[in-house]
Design brief:
Blueprint: H1 3-35, H2 42-61, H3 65-83, H4 90-106
Helix pairs in contact: 1-2, 1-4, 2-3, 3-4
């Protein structure tokens, strides 16, 4: 395998990863919706934290460093709620919604 072959394989993997991210973004939104506006649903928070953690690691692996950084910020925001799962405040909700938006925006549409 030469370098050109490797680059073609890597490019195909990046495209497949980008496409899979769209479904995972929907899972992020669904987990956040389950948290609700009142008392935090710990299972949904853990799911959201796990998804963010996965993006934080896998994004840079496929060359999407901005996605990894945005996901790491989301993971930190969610972790704060995981360790103190009380009623979510309006400020916390806005911070997490902004962090989810940032994760989605960090993945380029095409190269």
């Amino acid at each position: 395998m030469n370098n050109d072959d490797f680059e073609r394989i890597l490019q195909k993997q990046r495209i497949a990863y980008r496409n899979a991210c769209r479904e995972k973004f929907a899972a992020l939104r669904a987990a956040w919706a389950r948290v609700g506006a009142g008392r935090a649903d710990i299972d949904a928070l853990l799911e959201l934290e796990r998804l963010a953690h996965t993006f934080a690691g896998s994004g840079p692996t496929f060359g999407f460093e901005a996605l990894g950084e945005a996901a790491r910020r989301l993971e930190r925001e969610v972790h704060r709620l995981v360790v103190t799962p009380a009623t979510t405040t309006v400020v916390q909700r806005h911070q997490i919604e902004a962090a989810i938006d940032a994760v989605e925006r960090a993945l380029p549409d095409a190269e």
